[in-house]
Design goal:
By secondary structure, the protein is α+β, with helices and mostly antiparallel strands. It has 16 helices and six strands. The chain folds into two domains: 387 residues, no CATH class; 74 residues, no CATH class. Strands 2-3-4-5 form a four-stranded antiparallel sheet, with no helix packed on it. The chain has a two-stranded antiparallel sheet with strand order 1-6. Strand 3 and strand 4 form a beta hairpin. Helix 2 packs across helix 14, helix 2 packs parallel to helix 15 and helix 7 runs antiparallel to helix 8. The two termini are 33 Å apart.
Length: 482
C-alpha cells in the first residue's frame, strides 16, 4: 500500500496560526523587555532556533546510525526521521545570522566574546580564545555547519528515496552516505554547541558539553518522533506501525533520558567537587537567582524522574496516551534545559535597579588595585579615614564593571559580581530572564514552523519505503519477554 501524506489546507492554517502566535510572543517580549538591546528577545530566538535545529540534525543521525548497523527496526519510521531534518535547511543559517548580528552590535548576547577580542593587552588565558573566535574564522565555521547540515538534509531525503529500489549498489551507497554524515555530525554537533551556547560565558568550561547537548535534543527528537507517529496513525496513515514499534521508540527515549541524566549529574558533580572557578561560575551565577534554581532542578525532575518512574514500565511504552503525554512533557522539559543555558549568561538579561552607578567604601581600594605606590610610607598613626577613598563603580553596557576614584580609573573587573566580590556591595539588579507568557508563545511559534517544514517534506514522497530490503523484517517486529 503506497501511503503519501496529504498536507491539507486545514493543517497549514493551524500551523500558520501557531507561527502567528509566535510572532505575537516576539512582539510581546520586544515591547515589555527592551533592556540591554532587547536581550530577552534575542535569548528566545537563540534558544528556540538552536533547540529545534538540534532535533532536526538528530533525525539524520537516527537514520544514519540505523543504516550503518544494518538495522531493520527504523524502516517504517525512516521517513519521519528524514522529514525532521527539513527544518535545518533554514534554521542553520538563522543561527549564523544571530551571531553576525551580535558582532554588528544589534544585540548583546555575544558581548563577552567581543570584549575578549578587543582586549588590549590580551590576557594570557584569553590568547587561544582570541584565535578561536576571530570573527572570520568563527563565522566561517558557522557557515560550514549550516551548509553541511542543509546539504545532508537535502541529499539524504533525495537519496534514501532511491533505496526503495532493491539495487545492491544503491544500498551500498546509502551506507557510505550514512557514514559520511556520522563523521560530520560528530564534529559539527559538538563544535556548534561551543560556538553558539558555551561561548555565551567565555569564562566557563565543560569538557562534555557537546555530549550533553547531543543527549538533550536526542531525547527531544525521540519524543517528537513518537508524537508524530501517533498523530499520523490517528489520521489513518502508517497502519503497519503498531505498539511494538512505538515500544521500541519508547525504549530509546527512556535510554536517552537516563543517558542525559548521567551527563547532567556527571557535569554538576565533578564541577562541584573540583571547585574550579572556571567551572563553578556557571552554577554560582544561576543559583544566585532563585528563579533558576527552580528551572534547573525542575528540568531535572521532569527529564529524569518521569522517565524513571513511568516510562520504565513495559505497559507505559505500549500505551499511546501515556507515551504521548510523556513525550510532550519531555519536549518541553528539554526546552527548559536549554533555556537555563541561554537566558542567564553572561548578564545581558540584567539591569541595575537604581541607575548604572553605585558607590562603595574600601580601605585603600585594595579590592581593585593598590593605588598607593609606597604603602610602607603610610604611618601607623594615620587616621583610618585618610586611608579610605570613595569609589564609583560603573556597570558598562556589556556587563563589565569599572571603578573610578580620586586617582582616576582604579581598575576594571568583568562580570556582574567582579566589582564587589567580598568587599563592598554592588547595586541590586533586576533579572529579566524568565519563562513567561512570551516565552510560551514563542515556543509555540517555533514549533509551528518546525512542523510546517516537517509536513511539507513528508508530503513529497511515500511515507513507507515499500521496496526497502529490511521492510518485511520491521513489519514482523514483535517485542516479547520470556
Amino acid at each position: 500500500m503506497n501511503e503519501t501524506f496529504e498536507f491539507t489546507d486545514k493543517l497549514k492554517k493551524q500551523l500558520f496560526i501557531m507561527m502567528l502566535t509566535g510572532l505575537a510572543g516576539l512582539a510581546l517580549v520586544f515591547f515589555l523587555y527592551p533592556e540591554n538591546s532587547h536581550a530577552r528577545l534575542w535569548s528566545n530566538i537563540l534558544a528556540n532556533t538552536y533547540y529545534f535545529t538540534g532535533i532536526s540534525i538528530f533525525g539524520m543521525f537516527a537514520v544514519s546510525a540505523g543504516t550503518l548497523a544494518y538495522g531493520g527496526w527504523h524502516i517504517l519510521v525512516k521517513r519521519i526521521f528524514l522529514s525532521l531534518a527539513a527544518f535545518v535547511r533554514v534554521s542553520g543559517f538563522v543561527l549564523v545570522l544571530i551571531v553576525v548580528l551580535g558582532l554588528l552590535n544589534v544585540h548583546t548576547l555575544y558581548d563577552h566574546v567581543k570584549h575578549i577580542l578587543h582586549e588590549t593587552p590580551v590576557a594570557e588565558n584569553h590568547t587561544t580564545k582570541v584565535i578561536f573566535f576571530a570573527p572570520v574564522f568563527w563565522i566561517s565555521r558557522l557557515v560550514a555547519y549550516a551548509f553541511l547540515w542543509a546539504l545532508f538534509s537535502w541529499g539524504m531525503n533525495k537519496f534514501f528515496a532511491r533505496t526503495d529500489q532493491t539495487d545492491p549498489k544503491v544500498y551500498k551507497q546509502s551506507k557510505l552516505l550514512a557514514a559520511a554524515f556520522i563523521v560530520t555530525f560528530a564534529v559539527t554537533e559538538s563544535a556548534a554547541s561551543w560556538d553558539y551556547i558555551m561561548c555565551l560565558d567565555t569564562h566557563w568550561y565543560s569538557t562534555l558539553f557537546g555530549w550533553y547537548n547531543f543527549a538533550s535534543y536526542g531525547c527531544a527528537a525521540w519524543a517528537m518522533t513518537i508524537l508524530l507517529v501517533i498523530y499520523l496513525k490517528s489520521k489513518g496513515y502508517m497502519s503497519r506501525v503498531n505498539e511494538n514499534h512505538v515500544h521500541d521508540l519508547g525504549k530509546l527515549l527512556f535510554g536517552f533520558s537516563i543517558f542525559w541524566t548521567y551527563l547532567w549529574f556527571d557535569q554538576f558533580m565533578l564541577q562541584w567537587f573540583a571547585n574550579i572557578p572556571e567551572e563553578t561560575s556557571f552554577w554560582v551565577k544561576r543559583f544566585g537567582e532563585g528563579y533558576f534554581k527552580v528551572t534547573i532542578f525542575g528540568a531535572l525532575i521532569v527529564n529524569f524522574l518521569f522517565p524513571l518512574f513511568f516510562l520504565i514500565k513495559r505497559s507505559a511504552k505500549r500505551n499511546f496516551k501515556i507515551i504521548g503525554f510523556g513525550s510532550m512533557l519531555l519536549i518541553f522539559g528539554h526546552y527548559v534545559d536549554f533555556f537555563n543555558y541561554t537566558f542567564v549568561e553572561p548578564n545581558w538579561n540584567k539591569e541595575l535597579q537604581h541607575g548604572h552607578h553605585a558607590k562603595v567604601q574600601t580601605d585603600k581600594v585594595i579590592l581593585y588595585a593598590q593605588h598607593d605606590e609606597h604603602p610602607a610610607a603610610t604611618s601607623d598613626a594615620t587616621p583610618a579615614h585618610e586611608n579610605k577613598e570613595e569609589v564609583t563603580v560603573e556597570v558598562k553596557h556589556d556587563g563589565a564593571v569599572e571603578a573610578h576614584g580620586e586617582h582616576g580609573t582604579v581598575a576594571e573587573a568583568h562580570g556582574a559580581h567582579g566589582a564587589a566580590e567580598g568587599h563592598g556591595a554592588e547595586a541590586p539588579v533586576t533579572n529579566f530572564a524568565a519563562i513567561g507568557i512570551g516565552e510560551l508563545l514563542i515556543f509555540i511559534g517555533f514549533l509551528g514552523a518546525f512542523l510546517f517544514a516537517f509536513f511539507r517534506n513528508l508530503a513529497k514522497r511515500p511515507i513507507i519505503p515499500e521496496n526497502d530490503p529490511y521492510l518485511k523484517e520491521n513489519e514482523r517486529l514483535v517485542v516479547t519477554y520470556s
